[in-house]
Design a protein that fits this description.
Blueprint (H helix, E strand, L loop, with lengths): L22 H14 L5 E2 L4 E3 L12 E5 L4 H16 L3 E5 L4 H11 L4 E5 H8 L9 H12 L4 E3 L9 E6 H7 L4 H10 L6 E3 L1 H5 L4 H8 L8 E3 L2 H9 L6 E5 L4 H4 L2 E3 L12 E6 H6 L3 H11 L2 H12 L5 H12 L2 E3 L1
Parallel strand pairs: 3-4, 8-9, 8-10
Antiparallel strand pairs: 1-4, 2-13, 5-12, 6-12, 7-10, 7-11
Helix pairs in contact: 1-3, 2-15, 4-5, 14-15
């Protein structure tokens, strides 16, 4: 994910997912936009018709706005929602790629936008202010869904796409160590401390919900000299190099994981929060158009961490346009068809 860090800036919460630098400015912008009724964006003009979803055009006559945060994955997901709405008969205004989490969140809460994909961990920790995540993904989603109702936000069923933190190792280096889980890393650190070197972002290296907390949860102690701090975007290439860090902090849906031939280690003690992607809808919009659930539920069921890695790579590695990546996937899966 690189620049889309979810770490909360105290006070308050990429608390990932994870709020980021520029929080105050993002809040001010979001409130200004919602307060004056401004709806920036552009109409979706794609000629698409229903495929496996949207038959009968249940949104015919509706005018809906979709939004997203400003990182590749969330833009792709926002484009998917807009294209499905468009195929189902709606006129769609595209307000994806808003600056920061808070801008998109306020657009949904205030009604400046109708739908987007949000992450359960972000909702629970960043927006609702809980310090402790819930380990079970379904219970985490249920808790967010129930708690966010008072804010006028409706959470639809989540996908298995889980964009959370992880450690990764290059497959070539891992041929020597056979690491599969973070517990394996802890065992290696006890057995051979010099072998465990790690590339991380600055905040991950210092926060209780980052590296120090992970070390405590797994009973490992990585020597300070073995921890290399750097920009998140550099970590992937560093880990893939033969003479650099053994391990690196990554986001599980990042397309560079496949591109750099990295193995993601299993968080077998469930230390990191769940960040499952789920559609969120402005509640008044959902009450007016409950058909939205039937349009987006099949989409969410198809969205996995592996699918996200594939689609993110098309944007972040190959340089493709997020809108076209979203559209091509929807066409390939048969959710929509060309008009």
């Amino acid at each position: 994910m690189g620049p889309r860090s979810r770490w909360p800036k105290r006070p308050g919460a990429g608390g990932r997912r994870k709020v980021r630098a520029g929080l105050v400015g993002a809040v001010a912008l979001a409130l200004a936009l919602s307060g004056c009724g401004l709806k920036s964006g552009s109409p979706m003009v794609d000629d698409v018709v229903p495929g496996s979803v949207g038959r009968g055009k249940p949104l015919d006559g509706a005018s809906l706005t979709v939004t997203s945060k400003n990182f590749s994955e969330n833009i792709i997901l926002g484009q998917m929602i807009g294209l499905v709405f468009k195929a189902a008969g709606a006129e769609v205004l595209d307000r994806t790629n808003l600056p920061g989490s808070i801008s998109a969140r306020e657009a949904i809460v205030k009604g400046g936008a109708d739908a987007m994909y949000e992450y359960t961990g972000t909702g629970w920790i960043t927006y609702l202010g809980h310090a402790k995540p819930i380990a079970d993904p379904l219970k985490q989603w249920e808790a967010v869904r129930d708690a966010d109702r008072k804010n006028g936000v409706t959470w639809l069923p989540q996908s298995t796409l889980n964009n959370t933190y992880a450690l990764a190792v290059s497959r070539k280096k891992n041929a020597k160590y056979h690491l599969r889980t973070l517990s394996d890393v802890a065992a290696l650190a006890r057995r051979n401390p010099s072998a465990v070197t790690i590339c991380v972002e600055n905040e991950f290296a210092s926060r209780d919900d980052g590296l120090p907390g992970m070390e405590k949860a797994y009973g490992m102690s990585i020597p300070a000299g073995n921890i290399k701090k750097m920009d998140g975007g550099i970590i992937y290439t560093q880990v893939s190099k033969p003479n650099s860090c053994l391990l690196g902090e990554v986001f599980t849906t990042d397309g560079r994981i496949r591109a750099m031939d990295l193995d993601v280690l299993v968080d077998d003690k469930h230390f990191f929060p769940n960040y499952n992607a789920a559609p969120v809808v402005h509640t008044r919009t959902f009450e007016k158009y409950p058909e939205i659930a039937g349009l987006l539920d099949p989409l969410s069921r198809k969205l996995t961490t592996e699918v996200a890695q594939e689609l993110n790579a098309k944007v972040d590695v190959e340089g493709q346009d997020p809108h076209e990546v979203a559209k091509d996937w929807l066409l390939r899966e048969g959710f929509i068809r060309k008009g």
